Amino acid sequence: MVFTNLDKNSGLGALNTYLEDKSYISGYEPTQADVSVFTDVGKAPDSTKYPHAARWYAHISSYSPLPKGEIPSKIPTSNEPEDDDEDVDLFGSDDEEDAEAEKLKAQRLAEYQAKKAAKPKVIAKSVVTLDVKPWDDTTNMKELEALVKGVEMDGLVWGTSKLMPVGYGINKLQINCVIEDDKVGVDDLDEKITAFEDYVQSVDVAAFQKL
Fold first, then answer.
1. Which of 1, 55, 166, 179 shows the greatest Cβ crowding within 10 Å of its Cβ?
2. CATH of domain 125-210
3. Full-prediction pTM beyond 0.85?
4. To the nearest whole number, what is the mean pLDDT of the chain?
């Protein structure tokens, strides 16, 4: 990975974005690529503007400087004598890396959950056509229609209606409605309409279609 203009905001911005989910420029341990970019950056980036680049810079800074092009080794503490033959510990900050990875994972999970919660819930609806049959030809169909449309339920919207001949001078009321499936059932409508027993002989479902 090649980075340019690291002395400018554009270059540091690109580096910061690249290091958002990475600990090193290449691979899973310090390499010559880290040494090269570290040298080009020159000084610690602003942690407010470039938090990921600043984290990486501080981590690489914890290694003692060597000639350009070589991988740095860990700085010895004041209680530990320098030993040129001592193995280089390139994995001394695993806990820090694990914490960063867990923090990033938790952040992305929270963003996903928030996005999922903000998504509007789809309300399942259906169009129902009912045939409401009277007892005989003496039934006042206008009053029957008014009674049916007077049925109110949460999730129920009445639509158009018309009279259709059945025979022997008798008409049935065919009426449409839209229902929310989770709130209104066909059996509920049947029960409420047949409660007008002086007017209604029966209720049949002529059509049922999901929206």
1. 179
2. 3.30.70.60
3. no
4. 84
